[in-house]
């Protein structure tokens, strides 16, 4: 997870929710965002 930029982490999280991926995967992403103190609403996805 450390190799992902904050922006890619948030993008992966939002995509995982959008595509209803495995809840354990979403939880893993959530834990990492908490560890980095990232609020996904503060990032604008431009792609």
From TrEMBL:
UniProt keyword list: Protein kinase inhibitor
Keyword rRNA processing: no
Gene Ontology molecular function terms on file: protein kinase inhibitor activity
InterPro entries: Sda, Sda_sf
Keyword Lipid biosynthesis attributed: no
Domain of life: Bacteria
Alphabetical list of Gene3D superfamilies matching this protein: Sporulation inhibitor A (1.10.287.1100)
Protein name: Sporulation histidine kinase inhibitor Sda
Organism encoding this protein: Paenibacillus sepulcri
Organism taxonomic ancestry: Bacteria, Bacillati, Bacillota, Bacilli, Bacillales
């Amino acid at each position: 997870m450390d190799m992902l930029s904050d922006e890619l982490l948030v993008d992966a999280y939002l995509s995982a929710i959008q595509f209803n991926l495995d809840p354990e995967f979403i939880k893993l992403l959530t834990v990492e965002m908490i560890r980095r103190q990232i609020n996904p609403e503060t990032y604008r996805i431009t792609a």
